């Protein structure tokens, strides 16, 4: 196993994938057209910042390892050394992350390191399930007196699978009789390419209990971060993730937001899932007010109208955009709930039918139940889809053809770009289908023809309401209870 992520020389935190930016555009009620060439151009070229000129951001580090190998002790030590002397004794809030300063002598790297302190937390599983990993570097803790254990292997698998940068911390070196070399050999046997053996995974002996080796660990992390060139915009709208959220007395719903991009300030409008708010204040782990938060920082944000969920993404927009996106997201959530209801209704219908058939068979055991021959396969809602550009036709076809189940579903007869034409009507009529016109118009004469041939025509400019309409039509195709 190597530090594969190191090969990527930099991480451009302002670049979004075409798919992701399309989704955001749809959330804000726009109709995205994906042009592969332009997909990464979120700025017009004269204003596009050169990624390598963006400021460095602190690396985000997660400590992982087998139970009892000393993760909590190590985190506590790192945290306590990071709390300024003047604040010692002051009450610190647990906010899911803390910052450790990097000594100035450690080169051109970041000034601080952000440690996440709840790696087993639900928020992380939620983020990972969505393929969003906020971790740049994993510190794998291996207790020198225990060696490689099952959870150590799980972490090694994760590092390899997600191509994460890693540092091995061989812990508990203060214990008498421990053999660091033994642990290193065991790691080599697992395929871990340690730096001291010509590989690129550093290995640092430490003691979370005494603090020995922690400076080396911080320096090693900072060196990896320097090589990775973790850079992010420190201005403009933010992107971040909720680490924790709760209701706090006197503050209402609060959420710790880990920022990855942009600058968060009070009075910003933020959205997270179907929750939103206007930032009233931001607090650090000592509950001190923060005026502006930057990438790599975790701050407790107050001002939410309701409680956001840990692991969800936080974005910023104008008040109107946030409102619009909330309406769309709520609608989407409703649709998903409808789909689940649909499954439940189907299951109930199936059970009811089975019960009636069983009853009928019991009542007339000598005469076989006479059944009407059933139509083979699911009932189909056949569609002829027209849209204004190929991107939107693809998006509509992609969304509509997922609707349905084993008993009733959508079948796309044809799809194309442009206004609805007479041949679309004839094609739909031949297939006993419906025409879907997405953001295109239908000439009056074609409308008349469709009416004459009893071809239904569904026009829409909003993909969610179109999905809604088509879903209702599919529901109507479901067999009634006999
Ligand atoms: P976790 O389950 O990985 O979070 O492990 P903990 O941090 O809870 O540590 C498990 C046990 O190992 C505790 O009894 C710690 O006091 C002890 N421990 C942790 N780090 C060290 C260390 O560096 N040296 C020694 N001697 N004991 C340690």
Task: Describe the protein's architecture and organization.
The chain has 482 residues and is of the alpha/beta class. The protein contains 11 helices and 18 strands. The protein has helices spanning 18-27, 71-82, 122-129, 150-161, 180-189, 214-228, 319-363, 390-400, 422-430, 444-452, 463-477; strands at 11-12, 60-65, 97-101, 112-116, 137-143, 165-171, 203-205, 230-231, 239-248, 252-261, 269-272, 275-283, 298-304, 313-317, 379-387, 408-417, 434-438, 457-460. The strands form 4 sheets. Strands 3-4-2-5-6-7 form a 6-stranded mixed β-sheet, with helices on both faces. It starts with 10 loop residues before the first strand and ends in a 5-residue tail after the last helix. The relative contact order is 0.11. Mean pLDDT is 82; it is low at 5-13, 35-46, 84-89 and 367-374. Bound molecules: guanosine-5'-diphosphate (GDP). The site of guanosine-5'-diphosphate (GDP) has 15 residues, from α2.
Layout of helices and strands:
Elements: E1 11-12, H1 18-27, E2 60-65, H2 71-82, E3 97-101, E4 112-116, H3 122-129, E5 137-143, H4 150-161, E6 165-171, H5 180-189, E7 203-205, H6 214-228, E8 230-231, E9 239-248, E10 252-261, E11 269-272, E12 275-283, E13 298-304, E14 313-317, H7 319-363, E15 379-387, H8 390-400, E16 408-417, H9 422-430, E17 434-438, H10 444-452, E18 457-460, H11 463-477
Parallel strand pairs: 1-8, 2-4, 2-5, 5-6, 6-7, 15-16, 15-17, 17-18
Antiparallel strand pairs: 3-4, 9-10, 9-14, 10-13, 11-12, 11-14, 12-13
């Amino acid at each position: 196993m190597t530090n594969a992520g190191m090969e990527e020389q930099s991480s451009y935190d302002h670049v979004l994938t075409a798919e992701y930016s399309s989704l955001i555009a749809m959330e804000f009620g726009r109709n995205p057209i994906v042009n592969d060439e332009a997909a990464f151009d979120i700025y017009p070229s004269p204003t596009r910042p050169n990624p390598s000129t963006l400021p460095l951001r602190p690396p985000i580090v997660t400590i992982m390892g087998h139970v009892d190998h000393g993760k909590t002790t190590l985190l506590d030590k790192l945290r306590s050394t990071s709390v300024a002397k003047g604040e010692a004794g002051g009450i610190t809030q647990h906010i899911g992350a803390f910052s450790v300063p990097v000594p100035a002598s450690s080169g051109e790297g970041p000034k601080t390191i952000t440690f996440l302190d709840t790696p087993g937390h639900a928020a992380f599983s939620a983020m990972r399930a969505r393929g969003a990993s906020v971790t740049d570097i994993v510190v794998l803790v291996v207790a020198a007196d225990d060696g490689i254990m099952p959870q150590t292997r799980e972490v090694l698998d994760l590092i390899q699978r997600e191509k994460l940068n890693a540092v091995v911390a061989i812990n508990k070196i203060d214990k008498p009789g421990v053999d660091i070399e033994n642990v290193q050999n065991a790691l080599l046997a697992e395929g871990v390419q340690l730096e001291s053996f010509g590989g690129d995974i550093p290995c640092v002996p430490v003691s979370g209990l005494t603090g020995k080796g922690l400076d080396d660990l911080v320096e090693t992390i900072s060196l990896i971060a320097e090589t990775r060139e973790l850079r992010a915009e420190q201005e403009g709208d933010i992107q971040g993730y909720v680490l924790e959220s709760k209701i706090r007395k006197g503050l209402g719903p609060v959420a710790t937001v880990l920022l990855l991009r942009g600058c968060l300030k009070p009075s910003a409008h933020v959205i997270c899932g179907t929750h939103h708010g206007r930032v009233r204040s931001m607090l650090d782990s000592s509950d001190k007010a923060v005026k502006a938060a930057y990438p790599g920082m975790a701050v407790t944000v107050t001002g939410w109208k309701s409680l956001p969920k840990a692991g969800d993404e936080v974005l910023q927009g104008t008040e109107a955009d946030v409102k619009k996106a909330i309406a769309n997201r709520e609608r989407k959530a409703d649709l998903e709930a409808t789909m689940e209801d649909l499954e439940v209704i189907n299951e109930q219908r199936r059970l009811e039918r089975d019960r009636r058939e069983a009853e009928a068979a019991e009542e007339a055991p000598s005469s076989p139940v006479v059944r009407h021959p059933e139509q083979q396969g699911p009932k189909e809602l056949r569609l002829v889809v027209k849209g204004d550009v190929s991107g939107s036709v693809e998006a509509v076809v992609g969304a509509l053809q997922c609707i349905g189940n084993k008993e009733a579903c959508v079948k796309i007869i044809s799809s194309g770009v442009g206004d609805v034409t007479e041949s679309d009507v004839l094609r739909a009529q031949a297939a006993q289908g419906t025409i879907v016109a997405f953001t295109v118009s239908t000439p009056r004469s074609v409308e008349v023809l469709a009416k004459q041939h009893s071809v239904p025509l569904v026009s829409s400019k909003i993909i969610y309401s179109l999905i809604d309409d088509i879903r209702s039509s599919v529901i109507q195709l479901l067999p009634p209870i006999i």
